[in-house]
Amino acid sequence: MSRREVREQIFKLLFRAEFYEEAELPEQLELFFEELDQKEEKDARYIQGKFEQIVTRLPELDGMINEAAKGWKTTRMGKVDLTLIRLAVYEIKFEEEVPTGVAINEAVELAKNYGTDDSASFVNGILAKLA
């Protein structure tokens, strides 16, 4: 898988996690990987590892987002937008090998594909404040 495809799969997994309790996440991980076509073992390990790292930092990520998003709290944001913002903020703040511009651009591109008509500009605006 390309980096873009891997990032998209991480987004899908994080989005799925929004609808389940923490105790249900191991089962959801298993189901996710059963449904995933064309996965290589190294990609699956990377996806799962990054997913788990992001989930453990959700309170910290949400705190950063809430500080930057004047007039918006994570509890009011659409699930797609919030998931993309969390993924990008994680990459910006905790992954040195991912350039900030790449993290923002990828989040905006995914927002165009999965979000509403306003998602790309919303995601870009929040991430610009955090970069």
Summary, kept brief:
This protein has 131 residues and is mostly helical.
User: Which regions contain 5 or more consecutive residues with pLDDT less than 50?
Assistant: none
Count of separate structural domains: 1
Distance N to C terminus: 27 Å
SS class: mainly alpha
Superfamily (CATH H level) name = NusB-like
- Strand percentage lies at under 5%
Notes on the structure:
This protein has helices at residues 3-17, 25-35, 41-56, 58-68, 79-94, 100-114, 119-130. With 131 residues, it is an all-alpha fold. It has a single domain (3-130), classed as NusB-like (N-utilizing Substance Protein B Homolog, Chain A, Orthogonal Bundle), CATH 1.10.940.10.
List the helices and strands and how they pair.
Elements: H1 3-17, H2 25-35, H3 41-56, H4 58-68, H5 79-94, H6 100-114, H7 119-130
Helix pairs in contact: 1-3, 1-5, 4-5, 5-6, 5-7, 6-7
Summary keywords:
mainly alpha; globular; single chain; 131 residues; N-utilizing Substance Protein B Homolog, Chain A; 7 helices
